[in-house]
Write a structure and sequence with these properties.
Order of helices and strands: EEHH
Subunit structure: Homodimer. Interacts with FtsZ.
Number of helices: 2
Strand content: 15-25%
Number of domains: 1
Number of strands: 2
Family: Belongs to the ZapA family. Type 2 subfamily.
Helix content: 55-70%
Keywords: Cell cycle, Cell division, Coiled coil, Cytoplasm, Septation
Main location: cytoplasm
Strand order of the largest sheet: 1-2
Organism: Bacillus atrophaeus (strain 1942)
Length: 85
């Protein structure tokens, strides 16, 4: 979508319903929500005694960690490409 129009969709993350509004397609927002749901369930398997708030924070920390690692790898690849020019 990303043409300035907002899309609205309802998603289920870890058994709770959320309404998401954004410029991306509904399919994209559902995909993102699905990844968050999967990650929360993965974290819950490793830490079954965490309450939902701690589980959400732990999930956020893990997702940001993954993001930073991917960003670092992307920047490294960009530098390598520039060096070849």
């Amino acid at each position: 979508m990303s043409d300035g129009r907002k899309a609205k969709t309802t998603v289920d993350i870890y058994g709770q319903h959320f309404t998401i509004i954004g410029e991306e397609s509904k399919a994209h927002m559902r995909h993102v929500a699905g990844i968050v749901d999967d990650k929360m369930r993965e974290m819950n398997e490793k830490n079954p005694y965490l309450d939902i708030n701690k589980l959400a924070v732990l999930t956020a920390v893990n997702v940001v960690h993954d993001y930073i690692k991917l960003k670092e790898e992307y920047e490294k690849l960009e530098r390598q490409l520039k060096e070849k020019d």
